[in-house]
TrEMBL record:
Keyword Cell membrane: no
Entry-linked InterPro entries: CBS_dom, CBS_dom_sf, Diverse_CBS-Domain
Transmembrane residue ranges: none
SUPFAM superfamilies noted in UniProt: CBS-domain pair
Keywords for the protein's UniProt record, in alphabetical order: CBS domain
Official protein name in the record: CBS domain-containing protein
PANTHER family attached to this UniProt entry: CBS DOMAIN-CONTAINING PROTEIN, CBS DOMAIN-CONTAINING PROTEIN CBSX3, MITOCHONDRIAL
CBS domain location: 11-67, 86-140
Length: 140
C-alpha cells in the first residue's frame, strides 16, 4: 500500500446531490435508486449539509418496507424538510488529503462519509466503503 495517495484517487466524482428545496421523498427515492447511503446537500457547487439514509431512518419507519420498493413513508417525510434532518456542520477534506488521513478521520468520528471540497466547491465524496475497497485492493 502506498503512503500519501490522495483521496481523489478513490472518491466518487459523479455525485447524486440534493438541494435544500428538495423533499425527503425525493431523497429516499435517490437512496434506493442509486444504492447509496449519503447524499451531499448543495446550493450550486457549494455544500450546505449531508443527508444520510440513517438520518431518514431516525424519523420514519421506512426500513420496515422492502428496500427495493419505490414506495416510501410520505406522511412522515412530508412533516420534515431536508434542512431539518441533514447534518449542517459538515467535516470535509480536500482532494489532495491522503487516504490515510481520511481513514483516520472516519475511524475517529461517528460518520461514514466525507465531502471532498476544493476552493469551496464540492468535487466528490469519499465513504468508508471506498476505503474498504482501496484497502482490499492493496492487500490482495
Amino acid at each position: 500500500m502506498k503512503i500519501g495517495v490522495p483521496v481523489s484517487k478513490i472518491m466518487t466524482k459523479n455525485l447524486v446531490t440534493l438541494s435544500t428545496k428538495d423533499d425527503l421523498v425525493t431523497a429516499e427515492r435517490l437512496f434506493k435508486k442509486h444504492h447509496i447511503r449519503h447524499i451531499p446537500v448543495v446550493e450550486g457547487n457549494n455544500i450546505k449539509g449531508m443527508l444520510s439514509h440513517t438520518d431518514l431512518m431516525r424519523i420514519s419507519f421506512a426500513d420496515a418496507i422492502d428496500e427495493h420498493e419505490e414506495v416510501v413513508d410520505t406522511i412522515v417525510y412530508n412533516m420534515f424538510t431536508i434542512p431539518q434532518v441533514m447534518v449542517h456542520d459538515v467535516v470535509s477534506v480536500t482532494s489532495d488529503t491522503t487516504i490515510k488521513d481520511v481513514a483516520e478521520i472516519l475511524s475517529k468520528r461517528e460518520f461514514h462519509a466525507l465531502p471532498v471540497v476544493d476552493n469551496g466547491k464540492l468535487k466528490g465524496i469519499v465513504t468508508t466503503t471506498d476505503l474498504i475497497r482501496y484497502f482490499l485492493k492493496s492487500i490482495l
